[in-house]
Every structure is written in structure tokens, then in C-alpha cells.
Amino acid sequence: MEWFARLGRSTLQGLAGLGRAAYLLVGALVARPQLKNIPLTIRQMYVVGVQSLLIIIVSGAFIGMVLALQAYTVLVDYGAEESLGPMVALSLLRELGPVVTALLFAGRAGSALTAEIGLMKATEQLSSLEMMAVDPLRRIIAPRLWAGVISMPMLAIIFSAVGILGGQVVGVDWLGVDSGSYWSVMQAAVEFDEDIMNGVIKSLVFAFVVTWIAVFRGYDSVPTSEGISQATTQTVVYSSLAVLGLDFVLTALMFGTH
Amino acid sequence: MNSRKIEVLVGLFVALAAAALIMLALKVADRGLSGNGETYILKAKFDNIGGLKVRSPVKVGGVVIGRVGNISLDDDDFTPVVTLIIGKEFDKFPQTSSVSILTSGLLGEQYVGLQPGFMLDENDVLKPGQYIEDTKSALVLEDLIGQFLFSRNND
Fold this sequence. Notes:
heterodimer, A: mainly alpha, B: 8 strands, Mce/MlaD (chain B), MlaD_Phospholipid_Transporter (chain B), Outer membrane lipid asymmetry maintenance protein MlaD (chain B)
């Protein structure tokens, strides 16, 4: 009996959390566009986007380089080292670009968002905003949500571009694959709509999910120091799991049929 | 940090992302130079298309002039019908042209090779939607081996 009670309680709690998350999303997004909030969004884009650039560029370059190095050792056995270009470009554009960017973004920017909003809640800044008849969903949550959704696809594009250049540095300049065939075989294999745009769509979905989880965990956190630390951990864990799970679903929908 | 500096940095960030997208579009996918021109359609019936796929290239002497648009099965005689999408600038092929399904290299991708025929009359060009009569099917390795074994047994 106790077991059923626990099952019921956790189901109800899960559903209530989902409801609060949906309420937060509707409250933040469904509103008349407020021009005075655009500077706030730009400031948040600086925090979540520009400040994530360094880690995105560095990890993009190294992942592209290591991809080229690993693929080369296998491909050269079959005399197929010309296929290095499409190998690096397709893995980056379709999978690694969106997914690794989302994981890094969850660790770098998502956790910071959760901690910031959680601390605002703990120090009762959100309640004070409500006291002054300012809706915290519009003033605090919406700019952060939009900034994340706008920034992450751009970060993923930069990640892929830097990774392909990194693959060129290792493949062409170091291992001696012909530069012409690296690019021309890549150009023959990569489709703009099929590969690049599907990667951007993936990244948009991840951006939405990761930022939503981050702001909701912060907004919903228990306003104590322990609660904030838990919420930050949950943000990183839940968004990573959501990204990896969604990636499989999206890949199956986009590339699985042929 | 003042808001002016933040705006400049965010602007640089957006410009960097736009530059990366343009680089991906032009240098990685090569969008600007192929596949946006006007096209017309030719059709061809084969006995066997082997591993031909949609978007496989159509080549004349190694030059890509178009792509495979659609592959379907004829309702009446159950032979594969391949629709070829050819660039508008290549619209002067004679009706006596032949198409065959070829393989690039020993194990490479399959493509459609178009062999232009003789021009008997100025008006004998292939018109959009027309069937190319002279077709050669893909070589299927198993059939070749089967024929080889069969001819060995006869000796």
C-alpha cells in the first residue's frame, strides 16, 4: 500500500512540475512583444552567447582535428582518404555540432542561468518585482529564454565551421590529404537543406529545451543554498539527458528513412 | 560593463555566426554554383537499375549535367522508370542518344551515363518529358558470375 502511495505521489509531483514548467513557458512567451525588453535580451545574449564563444571555438577546433585524425587512420587503409572531408563535415553538421554545443551550453550557460535565477528567488528579488507590479516572467525569464534560443544555433554553426577548418588543418596540412579533394568531395556530399539546415533545426530544438529546463529549474528551486545547488545539478543532468534522447528521435525523423 | 560595449560584442557574435553560415553554405555545401538553374525532365526505362539512387548524377563524358529526380515502376510492364532532371543549358541532345547505368570505380557510386547520338535532323532533339529509347541496364555482379559459371560448365 505504501508503495502505491509513493508511486501516486511521485506521479502527481511530476505532473505538477510539468504544469508549472508549461505555465512558466506560456507566461514568458505569450505576451505582447515588449520593445523595452530587447536591450535586456541583448545583455543576456552577451552572457549566454558571447561568453560561451571561447569554449565553443576551442572545443570545435579540437573535435574537428581529432575526428580527422581518427578517420584518416581508418580511411587510409582502404585508399579512401579523399572521403575525409565528407566524413568530418557530415559528422559535425549532423550530429556533433548541435549535440556537443548543447551539452557545453547546458554546462556553461544553463547552470549559470539556474543559479542566477535561483539566487534571485532566494534573496526574494523575484517577490520584490511582483510587489512593484513587474511580472518576473516577462522581465527576468523571457529575455533569458529568448537569448538562449537565439544564441545556441549560432554557436552550433560556429562550432561546425571551426571544426571543419580544424579537420582541414590536421587532414590537409599535417596528414597530406589533397586540399582540392578534401573540399570538392565534401561539397559533393553535403547538401545545404538536407544536412546544414537539419543541423540548425536540431540545434533550435536543443536550445529551446535546454534553456527552458535551465530557467524553470532556477525559478522552481527551493530558495536555500542547498536547493540552488540541487537545481543547478538537475539543470545539467536533465538537459544533457533530454538533448541525447531528443537527438536520437530527431535523427530518426530526419535521416532515418533512407 | 556598459551597454554600448555589450551591444558591440553581441553584434560581433551575430556577424561571426553569419560568416560561419555563409562559409558552410558556399564552401562546404557549394550551394551557390549548382542546382539552382532551370531544368527539364527526360525519362528512361531500364531492365535493372542496380544501386541507382535519387540524386545520383547524370554525366556526359564525366561532366555532370543533371541528377536523377525520381525512380518508379511502370504500371503496365513492371520495368523501372528513371526520371532525369537535366540542366536547361544542355537541351540539344539528339533522339538517338543512349543512357546506361555505370559505376564510378570498382566499388563506387552508380550514376547515369548519357552517350549523345548522331544528329540526323535539326528537329531530332530530345524534348522535355520524352523517353530515351536506347538504354543499357546496370551490371549486376551476381548475374555476371552466374553467366561466367554457366559458360564454364558448357566447355
